[in-house]
Design brief:
- There is one protein chain.
- By secondary structure, the chain is α/β, with parallel strands linked by helices.
- About 40% of the residues lie in helices and about 15% in strands.
- Helix 16 crosses helix 22 and helix 20 (about 435-440) packs across helix 22.
- The radius of gyration is 25 Å and the shape is globular.
- Adenosine-5'-diphosphate (ADP) binds near residues 25 and 50.
- Zinc ion (ZN) binds next to helix 17 and helix 18.
- It comes from Marinobacter confluentis.
Length: about 525
């Protein structure tokens, strides 16, 4: 950072105490804030609830001028402005919900230097009129919230975000901080490139939520499983139950009410009065269980949610992590509980195939769903697998997930794994799961014959397993880091460094008995 700091002279810690009333910074907050205060750029990766807002709110108050916060979520923007105003901070927003007069008032406040923070929707910011205004104003920093929206691989892509790279050239010397809760390494690189943040320091905080116990079980009788779980461990607790469909939300809420629980449904099919009444009760009363579709949760910050239950499989690990992350914000023991079945997978695949979006997008989504299934099927610590997906590591098994507490039934996968890995290798690490399985099972499809892969040594050597069983093997190899999806997102599987010893047969590998399979099929030896 070559820019000389322009600050009020107040220390960040003092602002934290005086304005926000908090004791100390969490984890990386202090480092991030110092970087931005001194004029440097920053890319911040922090889990939901980790405390991203303070990372730009404190520098906004320490540096002179107005901080411009770019946020795509109008409701959150309004909440934050209201909360800041209550703390005595001069904050305002510009977005499409305001009329001309309101907008002009905010613009005047900006020009006369009365604002500490200005929240702005991206489409508004990139209008020439807004950019010109900002050039005449005195700015302290730009904060780009939900920065993963710039990524075309992600499901939140917004084309307006691409324009934000102009901030670098048009406002040299104004520090920029980009923040996101969802970004694997590929997305992180993409954010840095597309937002011209190549000089930015990266701050990646741990994704571990040690007080959350992760548990995933195959679905047998989902309703009974849910009732047993709540009765045994969380009777009287506040919790969230996620279902995929509105009908199931309604039915599950009724089921819980019948058992005497204070359960309330929440989904987009309810009128907005009912929705906000249920949300209010969840926030204010003790022991309310909200049964919801994923429409519920954005911006919900209730510290004492003791459990999050999934009756259906989320479509990605990002979604799973975000939804389960609503449990235990206060740091006390909490449970992330899920049951899943083959039907879930089929339904999600159908929704995916029927969705808008090009082949490339669908391929990436398919990989994400496979990673989610991979987590369900691992034999190792679930937390280690979950954290690895987000580029984070945990050296030891956590001791606080179901696979740590009750090691699952496994089979000796050594031979199958060698076949799978050498098939990836022999076909040049250019193909996806379906193709690889076709080769292993000796299918005579056109593509195989065209590429001459009926001649490779792994052709047809995998007939002892069904296609579904092979899928499970491949998912577990990906989940355990032996295979990875190609970084370009074409769906090809590639070998990682870790699989060398496996390929040579030097190490043993235990695979989980595929819980999605119907019972009664024998395969390998159970240990
Ligand atoms: P995120 O945007 O990362 O999801 P928020 O910025 O909304 O998270 O913060 C989550 C919660 O943690 C908020 O209630 C916030 O007030 C609180 N919080 C953040 N930083 C601190 C801190 N240093 N000390 C105490 N509470 C904090
Ligand atoms: Zn564990």
């Amino acid at each position: 950072s070559t820019v000389r700091p322009e600050t009020t002279g107040e220390a960040p810690e003092d602002v934290l105490h005086r304005v926000f009333g908090y004791e100390s910074f969490r984890l990386l907050q202090g480092d991030i804030i110092r970087e931005v205060v001194s004029g440097g750029d920053a890319l911040v990766l922090m889990p939901t609830g980790g405390g991203k807002s303070l990372c730009y709110q404190v520098p906004a108050l320490v540096r002179t001028g107005t901080a411009v916060v770019i946020s795509p979520l109008i409701a959150l923007m309004q909440d934050q402005v209201a909360a800041l105003t209550e703390l005595g901070v001069k904050a305002a927003f510009l977005n499409s919900t305001m009329d001309f007069h309101q907008a002009q008032e905010t613009e005047n406040a900006l020009m006369t230097g009365e604002l500490d923070l200005l929240y702005c929707a991206p489409e508004r910011l990139i209008q020439p009129r807004t950019l010109n205004l900002l050039k005449d104003a005195s700015l302290s920093l730009f904060a780009i919230d939900e920065a993963h929206c710039v990524s075309q691989w992600g499901h939140d892509f917004r084309s307006d975000y691409l324009e934000l790279s102009r901030l670098a050239s048009e406002f040299p010397g104004v520090p920029r901080i980009a923040l996101t809760a969802t970004a694997d390494e590929r997305t992180r690189k993409e954010i840095a490139e597309r937002l011209s943040l190549t000089q930015a320091r990266h701050f990646i905080s741990s994704f571990d939520r040690p007080n959350i116990q992760y548990r995933i079980a195959p679905k047998t009788n989902a309703n009974k499983q849910l009732l047993d779980f709540i009765a045994a461990e969380h009777s009287g607790d506040c919790g969230i139950v996620y279902c995929l469909s509105r009908n199931k939300v309604d039915a599950t809420a009724k089921l819980l009410q019948k058992q005497g629980y204070n359960a309330l449904p929440y989904h987009a099919g309810l009128d907005s009065n009912t929705r906000s009444r249920h949300q209010e009760r969840f926030l204010r009363e003790d022991g309310v269980i909200i049964v919801a579709t994923i429409a519920f949760g954005m911006g919900i910050d209730k510290p004492d949610v003791r459990f999050v239950a999934h009756l259906d499989l989320p479509k990605s690990l990002e979604a799973y992590y975000q939804e389960t992350g609503r449990a235990g914000r206060d740091g006390n023991p909490s449970t992330a509980w899920m049951v899943y079945g083959l039907q879930d997978v089929i339904k999600l695949r159908q929704m995916l195939e029927a969705s808008q979006g090009n082949d490339h997008f669908k391929r990436v989504e398919r990989q994400k769903l496979d990673a989610m299934l991979g987590l369900c099927e691992v034999t190792q610590c679930r937390r280690q697998v979950l954290l690895r997906y987000f580029g984070d590591t945990l050296d030891q098994p956590c001791g606080n997930c179901d696979t740590c507490l009750n090691p699952p039934e496994t089979w000796d996968g050594k031979v199958a794994v060698q076949k799978a890995l050498s098939c990836v290798f022999r076909t040049g690490q250019r193909f996806g799961v379906t193709y690889l399985i076709d080769v292993l099972r000796g299918s005579e499809n056109e593509r195989i014959l065209q590429s001459g892969h009926q001649a490779v040594s792994t052709y047809g050597i995998g007939q002892e397993l069904s296609a579904n069983e092979w899928k499970s093997v491949f998912r577990q190899l990906v989940a355990n880091g032996y295979l990875r999806a190609d970084p370009e997102g074409y769906g090809a599987l590639q070998l990682t460094e870790e699989c060398r010893a496996l390929l040579k047969g030097e190490v043993a590998i235990e695979l989980r008995k595929d819980p999605v399979q119907k019972a009664g099929k024998s395969r390998g030896t159970a240990s």
